[in-house]
Amino acid sequence: MIKEDIIRRRQYCQVVKEITGSERYLVVGIDVAKEKHHAFMV
Fold first, then answer.
1. Which pLDDT score, from 0 to 100, does residue 1 have?
2. What is the pLDDT of residue 38?
3. Taking the domains of the chain in order of start, what are their residue ranges?
4. pLDDT digit string (tens) for 2-37?
5. HEC letters along 1-42
6. What is the distance between the alpha carbons of residues 7 and 27, in angstroms, rounded to a whole number?
């Protein structure tokens, strides 16, 4: 990996750690690539 990719990966991992198990965030995912759309909230 190049240096920028490593930095980006570390930043991503930090955000995931903050969100996981936290009551401060609401994560919403929507699958819009299908004919019938699905959404979830965590």
1. 66
2. 78
3. 3-41
4. 999 999 999 999 988 888 888 888 888 888 777 887
5. CCHHHHHHHHHHHHHHHHHCCCCCCCCEEEECCCCCCEEEEC
6. 23
Q: Which among 22, 40, 20 is positioned nearest to 30, based on CA atoms? A: 40
Which two tokens mark 20?
Answer: 């996981």
pLDDT at 7: 92
The single-letter code of the amino acid at 39 is A
24 phi and psi angles, rounded to 5 deg: -85, -15
Q: What is the CA radius of gyration of the chain?
A: 15
Q: Indicate the pairing of strand 28-31 with strand 38-41.
A: antiparallel
